[in-house]
Amino acid sequence: MTEPRILTVRPEPDQYAWTFGGAAPVARIAPGTVLDLFTEDCFAGRVRSEKDLVSEVCEFPFLNPQTGPFHIEGAEPGDTVAVHFVSIEPARDWAASTTVPLFGALTSTHTTATLQPPLAEQVWIWQLDRARRTALFQARDSDIEVELPMDPMHGTVGVAPANLEVRSALVPDAHGGNMDTPEMRAGVTCYLGVNVEGALLSLGDGHARQGEGETCGVAVECAMNTVVIVDLLKDVATPWPRLESDTHLISTGSARPLEDAFRISQLDLVRWLVRDYGFSEPDAYQFATQAVESPLANVCDTNYTCVAKLRKEWLPKRETYRGVHARLRETARALRG
């Protein structure tokens, strides 16, 4: 087997992208390239203590810096980019979370306007034990401390949108973006439909862990050292971001209101079953209804994101996406030695 090309990227502070679309590529890569990346946290590394309030140390809209974009040679509209996460490892021994005025699921927002004061702006610094794989919660208003297991993930993965659009890195949609699903972890392959020549892939927004829904709007945010393998599937369409793990097929949908995000993810899963597993549409609708798991990804971003996931062991033995997930898993094992 030919050794894959490995490209290492450690961006300088002025080299991050803040949008999907509208940013020049930092590199051109061939399908099959391994990217060894550093990604900064959503605060660009500026929230380092409980005194570092986002409103004081960060400048909107410069939040959620992305490493990339990468121009993938041969990628054209109608193709699919496959991004396999080999490893996602916190780059520091600490992470930050916050409450932000007029942001989050349990507070007034700019669009859900109510006559009450905004939540107070506060910061929690989480200590990460990378050897023991734990994240330490320390309460601000009591002596409560709780160790939670680390579950590193990327909140933001995407390509340039269609129709000449430029989207903030804070927004999830059909191009991917800030989906904030905990399913985006090591061992998973993410499928993204190509909208422009070269696809223009970027990723960032590492989380040491995050609960489903990301209720307060901010996860355990940390810089990451991440290794991915990027491949290209010609003439295979992917209308909404999909993920494949060793155990599940996973569709996503991003929209407001929340029920529309739910509908998108469920419909995408039904159509995936029809295309690759031999179901008729009514049969897929019935089967998915009885077998699907539907965790929330985020209920705080500009668009909400829902997930529809289905156990592969319950499906007919068919190949999806030309077997790329299994192939990239083998390449990942070889990389890890």
From TrEMBL:
<dbReference type="Pfam" id="PF03069">
    <property type="entry name" value="FmdA_AmdA"/>
</dbReference>
<dbReference type="InterPro" id="IPR004304">
    <property type="entry name" value="FmdA_AmdA"/>
</dbReference>
<protein>
    <submittedName>
        <fullName>Acetamidase/formamidase family protein</fullName>
    </submittedName>
</protein>
